[in-house]
């Protein structure tokens, strides 16, 4: 075997070894992660047929997420997340015997959440996940009732659920997720505030 052939075989073996190592899934037990992302939200508001209140909402603002967490095992993680959901507008139309009264407001939501996540790998890079947690929701509102202006704040705890798709490459990660917060329009939990949901795109760094 000549020198060139030996060098070629050595290079092939080294390349194969490198590819094999690269293809192995990252072991993420006990690792910490930090992340930042963007979100956009919608609001689930229901018509109250008993009191004759019709509610509509619109949200097209973009907010941001900050998060820190710990990967407890390959499948489970626990994280703390702060989210600014951005600004949205809401209108309540109160039907009465006379002309209807209109309450409109511009609101911003800020969330501090503790979330547990279960992840199922699809291959060495992609995964799907589901999570659940609890959020402390702080709402600031500037409202107009007919011609009167009111500024108010509201704080409440809400259960939170979500699911999404994740991608991992070495120490970097990204995920696209859907999150739903249960508010007072749901009889399953004794909570306050309006139900709402949002989509998030987060980038993560594992250490």
Plain-language structure description:
The protein is built from 1 helix and 9 strands. An 8-stranded antiparallel barrel has the order 1-3-4-5-6-7-8-9. The chain has 207 residues and is mostly beta strands. The two termini are 46 Å apart. The protein has a single domain (26-206), classed as Porin (Beta Barrel). Residues 14-26, 44-50 and 185-192 have low confidence and may be disordered. It is 10% helix and 64% strand. The chain has one helix at 3-23; strands at 31-43, 53-58, 62-71, 76-94, 101-121, 126-145, 148-169, 172-181, 196-206. It is elongated, with a radius of gyration of 24 Å.
Q: From the 3D coordinates, which CATH architecture would you assign?
A: Beta Barrel
Main beta sheet strand tally, sense and closure = 8 strands, antiparallel, barrel
Widest sheet: strand ordering: 1-3-4-5-6-7-8-9
Backbone CA Rg: 24 Å
Task: Write down how many β-strands occur, each being a DSSP E stretch of 2 or more residues.
Answer: 9
Helix share, percent: 10-25%
CATH topology: Porin
Strand content: over 45%
End-to-end Cα distance? 46 Å
Class derived from helix and strand content: mainly beta
Mean pLDDT: 77
Unreliable stretches (pLDDT < 50, length at least 5) are 14-26, 44-50, 185-192
Elements, N to C (H/E)? HEEEEEEEEE
> Which class in CATH terms?
Mainly Beta
Quaternary structure annotation: single chain
Q: Given the C-alpha coordinates, what overall shape results?
A: elongated
| Whole-number total of structural domains | 1
Number of helices: 1
